[in-house]
Amino acid sequence: MPKLIRLHDGHAAFANDAYVTVADEDETPASGDVILPLERFRTEGEVLLSNGRNVGVLLASDQAIEDIAQDLTRLSLVALSFPKFRDGRHYTSARLLRERFGYDGEIRAVGEVLREQAVFFVRCGFDAFEPADGSTPEQWMAAAGRFRHVYQRGADDRDPAFIERTQ
Amino acid sequence: MKAIVANRLIDGEVVYWNHGAWKTRFGEAELFEADDAAEAAVAQANVPTQVVDCYLIDVAPEADGYAPTAFRERVKATGPQNHPQHGKQAEGGHDIELIKQAHGIARSAGRHNLIKLKK
Amino acid sequence: MYRYDAIDRAFVEDRAAQFKAQVARRLAGEISEDQFKPLRLMNGLYLQLHAYMLRISIPYGTLSTTQLRKLAWIARTYDKGYGHFTTRQNLQFHWIKLRDVPDILDHLASVEMHALQTSGNCIRNVTSDPRAGATAEEIEDPRVWSELIRQWAALHPEFSFLPRKFKIAVTASPHDRTAARLHDIGLLMRKGREGLGFEVIVGGGMGRTPYVGPTIREFLPAEHLMSYLEAILRIYNRHGRRDNIYKARIKILVAQLGAEEFARQVEAEWEAIDRPSLDLPQAEIERVRAGFAAPAFETLPGRSDAFEAAKAADYALARFARNNVHPHKQPGYAIVDISLKAPGETPGDATGDQMDAIADLADAYSFGEVRVTHEQNLVLAHVKLDDVAAVFAGLKAIGLASANINLVSDIIACPGLDYCALANARAIPIAQDIAVRFANAETAEKIGELKIKISGCINACGHHHVGHIGILGVDKKGEEFYQLSLGGSAAEDAEVGKILGPAVPADKVTDAVDQMIEVYLRERHAGERFIDTYRRVGLVPFKEAVYAEAH
After folding, report:
1. By CA distance, what is B15's nearest residue in C?
2. Nearest C-alpha in A relative to C276
């Protein structure tokens, strides 16, 4: 299992993962925090939430963020899946979560999550990562901060070049 | 008949497998009669820190030696036609001349598994 | 031209350092070739048949002489002394060693250049008009907007893993020299009542399934360009197909949804997007605009007696003037095309020594700037009429004075199977053969404008779909064959050519071109170009001529 890296106030560290990701064929554990695939969330989410449990939803790369828009205030975590690192759909999902839906819970990148993408993940608003390449938090942050300047607005708080130039 | 071709990772040079070593000329390539021996050798040859794009090619007898059957592989073994002074052809030699004059069985761009050889 | 500030410089330095680390990790075996490949591709590094190929970005086709000299030096130091200018206004080196690439990127960074995003499924180098800033036709210099797009696209956090590559063209002239309607996005500058704006075309492209892109918005105010591009890319990133590489370009999405529905989705996204945070501050637009301020032109009469006298005395110069010299917005100046299509040579190739000599000419006669065209030629954009003869003499000395711009021997050809790992057939020898057949300058002028474009595979880097005569190399039962098409155009009257008939073997291609030209010469009305005659008489007479023997 990849170790979880969490980003908090610009610092990254390994974190204990309290969540259990429930695979399609698995039983939902009787207690504790869970991450459910979207289909499972639709059938079981209501009960789990009413029992006061922390619930996250896992979206496959072809599932749209709009499908959970109504539930976001109750979700403590959204996990976005990258089956291949080349599949970039969920970069958009993360930005929409942060910038359009104002989501402030954890956005976690799972799947083929590699250090070379760290800068894109962080800039799009992800704050938790399960690196498939065994990256340490130090390596992850070095990759994420490799560039002293950025050119575009993202979901992070970095000023793009066109703002830096006015200062 | 088969040979094993690859590009060297560090510089991209086209290389041919011969009993555990990579050679830079097609004329130095080890030729395999049996498909299973060739497959086994590819598995041994394809070391990702040394080579890229490692695969088997078809080789056929010519009047005075052997040449790759696929046209693409002949280009790889010799060099670009527009710059005869560039690539392996610059050094000349028997194997180069032989490939340049080979009359193709399959003048194909495809790799081994894409080529339909006339039997 | 635009010069880097400290931010731009730091960015390309960081990029070079990043790639250096990635190469080290690859060589140490820490990352696999599968993982490394997209990283090297995002730095323009391909593995081809004989070696690595490094594709260096020449943003909107504009080079300073400092940059051109650096490319010449790289050609001699790390390659075999030459480079290949491409249909995307870039430069490719075909004999690169992986171990040298980090150093090459450092050298490029030192002259404000990079190889960023010249490959991979990201936003590629922006195409623009090679006559930008020089032609009287344009509304404003389109490179202003091209540079702003270049910066916006550089390592875009959301759009670096798109379904497929993404190409944007910007032009501000009614005569389109960028093939805008064949790009993923084509931006045609318009002047509206409310100021500057763009007609926005989305979903053109070549490749396996060619489309002339539809207009999705007639007028987009220029100040909203960035937020609108962001909306288009977002729709594409979310909904473009990822299950089939041949259906992943935005043209397929636009065609499947229909232009109207695609436009509706873009507009809906654009309504929802945070425009004020994405659109550039006016000060930034003005800063970049200042980078493209006109050079210090002299006030000159519109006619140069010296040039007229020189033309009268030298028929070769007169021919060069007819074909390679074009009107400039500034009286007394001209735009001079440098043909990289000397018959028998490789289309688009230039040696390091030729690059140095061109840099010297540009310093002496064209404000130290050189342009690259998507037709694989170079341009000196601001030459005094008084100096054209000197430029011509300088070009003659390096074998680049061919007076064949837009003529039969001005052929576009991709590297093809002589270099490219994707190719099915050779393109260069076909181009050389045709150009040599029509090397006679008088014959070529008699034939007039004729755009022949050759691709060695269906990826269409040689733009064969939009050639007046298009030639596509195919692998037919293990042999190189060539499919001919007619009637394509990459200009403002963009059109995809129609396939003439069964593919012909390599040694019949030049004959077929010859036969089609004979038909044209027989059928043409006064003043008609090849393409006009084709449009009037249709495919049939050409087809009959080429396939006559088969009947």
Report:
1. C50
2. A153
Q: Cα(C294)–Cα(C320) distance, rounded to whole angstroms?
A: 26
- Taking the CA of residue C258 and the nearest CA in chain A, the distance in Å comes to 21
Nearest CA in chain C to A121: C157
SS3 content of chain B, % helix, strand, coil (to 5): 30, 25, 40
Rounded to 5°, the CA angle C195-C200-C203 comes to 175
- Set of chain C residues whose Cβ sits within 8 Å of the Cβ of A116: 22, 35, 39
- Over the Cα atoms of chain A, what is R_g? 16
Chain-chain contact of C7 with A164 (C-beta, under 8 angstroms): yes
Domains of chain C in start order, with CATH, are 6-110 (3.90.480.20), 134-290 (3.30.413.10), 305-397 (3.90.480.20), 413-550 (3.30.413.10)
**How many domains are contained in chain B?**
1
Assess C24–A contact: CB distance below 8 Å, yes or no.
Answer: no
Sign of the alpha-carbon dihedral angle for B84, B88, B90, B96:
negative
Contact C140, C191 (CB under 8 A): no
* Whole-number Å distance between alpha carbons of C168 and C41: 18
Q: Which of C96, C418, C475 sits opposite B82 (nearest CB)?
A: C418
Rounded Cα gap, residues C430 and C205, in angstroms: 24
Domain for residue B118, yes or no? no
pLDDT (tens digit, 9 = 90+) per residue, B15-26?
A: 999 999 999 999
Chains A and C touch (3+ CB pairs under 8 A): yes
What are the distances in angstroms from CA B6 to CA B25, B47, B110, C24, C152?
A: 12, 10, 15, 21, 38
Residue from C475, C480, C481 whose CB has the most chain B CBs within 10 Å, to mutate: C475
Local mean pLDDT, 10-residue blocks, chain A (167 residues): 90 96 91 96 95 97 97 97 96 98 98 95 98 95 96 96 95
Chain A residues with CB within 8 Å of chain C CB: 64, 85-89, 91-92, 95, 99-100, 114, 116-117, 119-120, 123-124, 133, 146-154, 161-166
- How far is C318 from C311, CA to CA, in rounded Å? 5
**Among candidate residues C38, C18, C21, the one with its CA nearest the CA of residue C30:** C21
| A90 contacts on C by Cβ (under 8 Å) | none
CATH number of A4-164: 3.20.20.70
> DSSP state, C286?
H
- What is the DSSP annotation of B90-110? GG--HHHHHHHHPPPS---SS
pLDDT at B104 > cutoff 70: no
Domain boundaries, chain A: 4-164
* Residue of chain C nearest B5, judged by CA positions: C49
Residue A147's nearest CA partner among C25, C10, C57, C113 is C10
Considering only the beta carbons, identify the residue of A91, A133, A164 that sits closest to C157.
A91
Mean pLDDT of B7-33: 97
Task: Name the residue facing C237 among A88, A123, A151 (closest C-beta).
Answer: A88
**Closest chain C CA to residue A92:** C158
Residues of B with CB under 8 A from a CB of C: 7, 9-14, 48-49, 52-53, 71-72, 75-76, 79-83, 86-87, 104-110, 115-116
What per-residue confidence (pLDDT) applies to C35? 86
Report the pLDDT value the prediction gives residue B102, as an integer from 0 to 100.
Answer: 83
Domain that holds residue B95: 2-112
Q: How far apart are CA C102 and CA C418, in angstroms?
A: 26
What's the pLDDT at C390? 98
Q: Provide the token pair at C347.
A: 């289309």
What are the residues whose beta carbons fall under 8 Å from the beta carbon of C271, sequence distance 6 or more?
A: none
Residue A68: helix, strand or coil by DSSP? Answer: helix
Is the residue at B41 inside a domain?
yes
State the Cα–Cα distance between residues C408 and C504, nearest whole angstrom: 20
CB contact under 8 A, B10 and C98: yes
